[in-house]
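for the writeup, i need someone to sanity check this before i put it in the appendix. the sequnce is what the collaborator sent (i think, or maybe the updated version? ugh). structure was predicted straight from it, no edits. if anything looks off just tell me and ill rerun, i have time this weekend
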Amino acid sequence: MTADFFRELTTAMEAARDAHAAGSPAERLLATCRAMRAWAIAHPAEFGWIFASPIPAAASARARPDSSRNLAGRDFELVFLEQIEDLWADAPFPIPPPENLAPSVRRQLQAYAASLGRKLPIEALHVALSCWIRLYGLLCMEVLNQLDFVYSDLAPIYEETLRDIARTLGLDYQQAAQT
């Protein structure tokens, strides 16, 4: 069931990305991120099912790398990561100097990149994951109602986060189309 929910979310994100195939990298990435939020808001129970419980530890994921849950989860994470790789290939964004990353962070990022067979420089991967953590963290807090004590509408906060992420990645931010 978890794999099915991952696939549904991944399909929604890919469809949004592909709907902007002729657009700029910023348009594609922002559409992907907005589709992730739209799916999560429309499917809070499913979102909770796949994200509110711990993801299997890396050791168990390595033990069963071809389980449908692990494959579906990997496909989900690659929707964002592959776009970051494309951005990097076209116009590298600012990254921290290598010495700014703690040795343990560097080792963990190297292991992660190797597990996926990715070639993004470790410092660029660090920036990408920092962006992802902000976006995903906010989305989790929204869907799990952790910010209801302050906000009744987190759409503007999500857009602020997208604007900041676009700036971090050297992209032109485009406001979401009003519906």
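Residues 57-63 have pLDDT under 50 and may be disordered. The radius of gyration is 16 Å.
thx in advance!!
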